Amino acid sequence: MGLIRASASEKDATMTEQSSKIALVTGASRGLGSAMAEALAERGYHIIALARTVGGLEELDDRITAKGGSATLVPVDINDDDAMAQICHSIHSRWGHVDLLVHAAIHAPPLAPMEHVDAKDLDKTLATNIRATARLILNVTPLLKAAPKGQAVLFDDPEKDDKFHGAYGMSKTAQMNMGAIWRDETTKTGVTVHVLTPAPMPTATRARFYPGEDRSKLADCHTEAARLLDQLPL
Q: Which PANTHER family match (predicted)?
C-alpha cells in the first residue's frame, strides 16, 4: 500500500509539506495521539497520521486543515509488517526523513486477574505493544537518522504495575525497557528518544479499564499534549 493523503488542496498541501518538518504519529485517530497530531500541526509540522480508524483520521484532518495545517492520512494496522515497511519506504521516497516520531498506538485488553487473562487478548496485546513497537523502531530509525535532529517519543503509564493490569502491564513494561535501550543506543547516532508520562486522560483506552470513573477529573487530551510537547526541544 502507499500513502493516502487527505488535505485541503493538493497544491497548498504540497507547498506546506515542502516547508514543514515531518511528524509521524501512530494511534492518531483519537485520544492522546490525535491531540498530539493537532498540536504538532499547529507548531508547523506536516503530520503523517497512522491509525486503523478511517473516520477518526478524516476528522483529525478536518481539524488540522481548518487551522491551516496539513496531514497525510494512513489507515493501517501497525501489526501489518509489510504495510508498515511500505509506508516507511514511501515516506523515504517522498520526504527522505522523519523529524519526529510520536508512538501513541496501544492495545489495552480488559483488566483481569492473571489467571483469567484471555489468550487472544494476550496475543494481541503483546503483538501490538511489543512486537509492533520493535518493528516500528526498525523501520523508522533510518528516517529519523536522515533528519537534521531526529526525535522519537514513547509514553509511559505509571499504572501499568497495578493489580489486574497483568497483560497490559507486562507489555507496557517491555515497551518501556525497549525504549530505554533504544535511547541509550542512539545517544551518539543523531536520534534522541524521549519517554514521557502523560497524566490520566478521558481516552477510550482508559474507559476500558475504568468504565465507571468520573471523567471530569481527568486531564484534557489537548492540554496534556501541549504540556508534553513543551518538554521537547522542538
A: DEHYDROGENASE/REDUCTASE SDR FAMILY MEMBER 7B (PTHR44196), SHORT CHAIN DEHYDROGENASE (PTHR44196:SF4)
Domains and CATH numbers, the chain: 4-228 (3.40.50.720)
d(CA 121, CA 46): 34
Global confidence as pTM: 0.93
Per DSSP bridges, beta strands 71-75 and 4-5 are antiparallel
- Smallest CA-to-CA distance from 41 within 74, 62, 69 is with 69
User: Which of 201, 218, 127, 214 lies closest to 168 in space, CA to CA?
Assistant: 127
DSSP lists the bridge partners of residue 229 as none
d(CA 97, CA 135): 17
| The pLDDT of residue 5 | 54
pLDDT in tens, 149-187: 999 999 999 989 899 989 999 999 999 999 999 999 999
